Amino acid sequence: MIIDCHTHLANPEHIGGEFLEGAQRAWGSDCDLSAAPKVHEAASRACDAVIVLPIDAEEIGYFTPNEFIADYVNQEPSRRIGFASVNPNRTGADKILREAVLGLGLKGLKLGPIYQKFNPAASMAYPLYAMANQLGIPIMWHQGTSYVENGPLEYSNAVLLDPVARSFPDLKMIVAHLGHPWFAETACLVRKHPNVYTDMSALSTRPWQMYNAMITALEYGIEKKIFFGTDFPFFTAERTMEAFRNINNIVEGTNLPRVPEQVIEDIIHRNTLGILGLD
To answer: How many CB atoms sit inside 10 A of residue 190's CB?
Structure first.
């Protein structure tokens, strides 16, 4: 079974402003980040199941409504698992999350401090974490860098999640993209907390970075806590798997360590939904 734990769904009208400008500056003026339902559906056929993520970040121009995600995943609930996104800066954020889970049937929470402009260790966000913990849903964190010009990098390091994990030891959390570029910090966090995991999405076009991230994960012994993900529409499952399976090509002919093929296949075929209690 192949489960993509990190895909995005968005119509063109959901993406604009600073987020789109930053993406086009980083990836080229023809960069199109929209992933309409038909596009997402076709791409997701490479996997047995997918987690579908929104983001509530209106200030930077990226806002996918939770209702939009719920409508899509409910068309094929056996393969699609929808998460909600709630900006902790919103009044009554915890109540919005409760309604998204109990009313819309969404099964997780997506947060991105660099996009939503909040310090994850700040007390103002704790009612939202407490609600996720009460509802028994996982949190997917974009806790890493981004091209958004006014996004606060100082809120992006995975170390800032340590007090959250200490406060809510039963709350399952996933740090996306191995926390790039803070791989070592992410590995330390994941090793330290039994219910904190990470995914290897969004690294397939940076082979040296992906290689170093995986070697760091191996050295810290967290390879069994890494999930497969793509960050679609940035990357497809096919492209991600091909790059991941060729990860050792970059050190061919050297004495540098290799990422074992079995570790790679175990990550690609990991039962993410079972581990997160979403099956």
So the answer is: 27
Q: Where are the beta strands (DSSP E) in the chain?
A: 3-8, 49-53, 56-57, 62-63, 80-82, 84-85, 109-111, 139-141, 173-175, 196-199, 226-227
Tell me the pLDDT of the chain (279 aa) as tens digits: 999 999 999 999 999 999 999 989 988 888 778 799 999 999 999 999 999 999 999 999 999 999 999 999 999 999 999 999 999 999 999 999 999 999 999 999 999 999 999 999 999 999 999 999 999 999 999 999 999 999 999 999 999 999 999 999 999 999 999 999 999 999 999 999 999 999 999 999 999 999 999 999 999 999 999 999 999 999 999 999 999 999 999 999 999 999 999 999 999 999 999 999 998
Whole-structure pTM value: 0.97
**Taking phi first (over 0 means left), then psi (-120 to 50 degrees means alpha), and beta for anything else, what does residue 248 get?**
alpha
Residue 76 gets the label, from left (phi > 0), alpha (psi -120 to 50) or beta, of beta
Is there a contact between 139 and 111 (Cβ–Cβ < 8 Å)?
A: yes
Query: Which residues does 66 contact at the CB level (< 8 Å), separation at least 6?
Result: 54, 56, 84, 85, 86, 100, 104, 106
Q: And the tokens for 268?
A: 């690609």
Q: How far apart are CA 88 and CA 110, in angstroms?
A: 11
